[in-house]
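Title: Comparing notes on inverse folding

I've been comparing how different people in this forum approach sequence design from structure. To keep things fair, I'm posting one structure and asking everyone to reply with a full sequence. Here's the target:
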């Protein structure tokens, strides 16, 4: 919710909701530039104070002109000079404070972004899933910007807003303490009214957040389900929950606004400059007509009086910005505190490419093991297929090999070296992966393919693109291999997958983890992908996450995973003969969807045969 202190309505950020001292994360992040920020704050305070001086000088001049003798005219020049000098000082100090805060903030942002980039580069790959990348984007872009607003703008604004009224009030007290107290009345009334408007704000804010959450989840459901509902002629049904959630929110919010409308509107009105001026003029006129003060003494009240209460209305959004900055600092600190992949104290290079998993257990949350005591060997040049029900841990097990996560117990070795001891660049030269969720860079096709071998020639890139069956599609793009992806040009899921196969072909890692694509609407695209995979598989050690058993019939070893542990392993025929879990899975899939590949061997559905034989058709 954007706060709107100048208009009626509940404002969670208004004064009275309470300003807290910055929590440690904010202070810790600002530590490197604390000195400069403090100096900027000091300069801004001087600027704010100096900014009040011309008003004081003008009121003194008014006093002299109305009450003094003509000879006093000469005495005005020092006041004029003081006003000009103070005005210039205010300008100079304000500019210097702004510049200093911006320079400090710029250095802070640079240092913070560098720290984040270094840290993110050392996070386990498994942290950079969809959720993880959202978190990273939020920290690097949005949160660092929120900190910029706080350090470069809000801090100085607050200093100015709070300093000037203090000096103005102090001066007014020396002129006439009674009218000075009247000038404070709107501020006191405003604070009380805001407090009343904000009573119960915490509970209301919680409900506000919950109501917004309901809208957001109903919106996601609406967007995701609308096609299904419409295709069954039930378009209205799709938006019922969404409309319900928005109506619920509208009812809640109008109830909240109604309950606080009077006090919040009154709070805004009572500190409005026109209202304060009116009050001071009326009371001042009474005091002047009763000879309690002179007309000239009223002038400073008319000049400075509104400044005493006015900042209250402007403090609200600044408090909101402080809270946003605090929340950003907490998130940035949490990301910076996320454990990175530990550096090995005994770096080891693998000898050969035999993969061995021994007693491997893994847990995402430190409580439930999703893998338990897995032993597995991948002999060089063989295809091993992981099968099992959804959620049995296939993807998790495969993700251990490119070190997306480290095992909780046991070990994974490549060529006799524990993965944790193999330097990252050495590991990724040896272990490649092609996953379903292909990430393409916002870069040219060539650069996307060359990711694993930036020094590859154009001929090599093209050869791999041909083998991955993506070359023709690339040539149809506006600039061929130079086409920038991710902007105006995007590739379909199947095309992106073929491009990632070309990338893996070029990187030429001897061990490969392959998450077999589940389904492509377009059989032509699927056939092309299977062709690409066949090219990729030739001569490599392959670990395939198989979603359809028909494609891995001739794998060298099929490993059945259930509930995080291996329950069966062997070749297709052996497992069928054993009449165990695999045989039942096989039957279930066959009866659910007769596989055309069974009838016509060698068609696109028969990828595993192709994979094994290294056919590139
Ligand atoms: P499969 O590939 O066989 O479908 P997964 O390896 O994806 O199985 O999942 C195994 C279990 O681990 C499931 O219970 C799943 O909910 C859980 N899981 C998978 N990924 C994550 C993750 N990033 N964080 C927490 N739990 C996860």
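Reply #1:
Here's my take.
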């Amino acid at each position: 919710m954007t706060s709107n202190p100048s208009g009626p309505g509940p404002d969670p950020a208004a004064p009275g909701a309470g300003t807290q001292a910055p929590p440690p994360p904010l202070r810790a992040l600002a530590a490197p530039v604390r000195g400069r920020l403090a100096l900027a704050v000091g300069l801004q305070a001087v600027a704010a104070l100096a900014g009040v001086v011309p008003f004081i000088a003008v009121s003194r001049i008014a006093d002299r002109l109305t009450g003094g003798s003509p000879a006093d005219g000469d005495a005005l020049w020092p006041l004029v000079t003081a006003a000009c000098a103070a005005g210039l000082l205010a300008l100079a100090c304000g500019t210097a404070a702004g510049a200093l805060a911006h320079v400090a903030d710029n250095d802070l942002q640079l240092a913070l972004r560098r720290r984040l980039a270094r840290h993110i580069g050392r996070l386990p790959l498994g942290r950079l899933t969809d959720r993880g990348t959202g978190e990273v984007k939020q920290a690097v872009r949005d949160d660092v910007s929120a900190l910029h607003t706080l350090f470069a703008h809000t801090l100085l604004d607050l200093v100015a807003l709070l300093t000037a009224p203090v000096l103005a009030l102090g001066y007014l007290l020396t002129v006439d303490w009674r009218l000075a107290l009247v000038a404070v009345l709107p501020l006191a009334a405003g604070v009380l009214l805001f407090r009343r408007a904000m009573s119960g704000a915490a509970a209301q804010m919680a409900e506000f957040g919950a109501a917004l959450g309901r809208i957001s989840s109903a919106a996601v459901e609406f967007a995701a389900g609308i096609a299904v509902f419409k295709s069954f002629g039930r378009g209205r049904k799709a938006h019922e929950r969404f409309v319900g959630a928005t109506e619920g929110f509208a009812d809640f919010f109008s109830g909240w606004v109604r309950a606080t409308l009077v006090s919040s509107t009154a709070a805004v009105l009572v500190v409005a400059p026109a209202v304060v001026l009116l009050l001071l003029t009326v009371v001042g006129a009474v005091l002047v007509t009763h000879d309690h003060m002179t007309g000239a003494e009223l002038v400073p009240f008319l000049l400075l009086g509104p400044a005493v209460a006015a900042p209250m209305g402007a403090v609200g959004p600044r408090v909101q910005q402080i809270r946003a900055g605090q929340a950003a600092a907490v998130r940035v600190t949490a990301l910076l505190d996320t454990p990175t992949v530990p550096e090995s104290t005994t770096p080891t290079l693998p000898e050969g490419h035999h993969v061995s998993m021994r007693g491997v257990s893994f847990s995402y949350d430190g409580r439930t093991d999703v893998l338990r005591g897995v032993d597995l060997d991948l002999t060089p040049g063989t295809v091993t297929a992981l099968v099992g029900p959804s959620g049995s841990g296939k993807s998790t097990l495969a993700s251990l090999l490119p070190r997306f996560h480290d095992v909780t117990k046991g070990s994974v070795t490549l060529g006799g070296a524990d993965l944790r001891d193999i330097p990252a660049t050495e590991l990724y030269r040896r272990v490649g992966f092609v996953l379903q969720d292909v990430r393409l860079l916002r870069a040219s096709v060539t650069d996307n393919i060359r990711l694993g071998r930036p020094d590859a020639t154009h001929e090599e890139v093209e050869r791999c693109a041909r083998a991955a069956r993506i070359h023709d599609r690339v040539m149809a793009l506006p600039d061929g291999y130079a086409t920038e992806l991710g902007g105006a040009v995007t590739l379909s899921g199947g095309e992106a997958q073929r491009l990632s196969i070309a990338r893996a072909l070029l990187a030429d890692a001897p061990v490969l983890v392959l998450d077999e694509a589940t389904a492509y609407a377009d059989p032509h695209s699927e056939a092309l992908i299977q062709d690409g995979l066949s090219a990729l598989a030739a001569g490599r050690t392959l670990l395939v996450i198989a979603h359809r058993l028909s494609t891995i019939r001739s794998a060298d070893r099929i490993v059945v995973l259930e509930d995080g542990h291996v329950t069966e392993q062997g070749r297709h025929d052996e497992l069928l003969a054993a009449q165990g879990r695999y045989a039942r899975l096989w039957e279930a899939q066959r009866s659910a969807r007769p596989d055309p590949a069974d009838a016509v061997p060698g068609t696109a559905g028969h990828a595993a045969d192709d994979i094994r034989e290294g056919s590139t058709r």
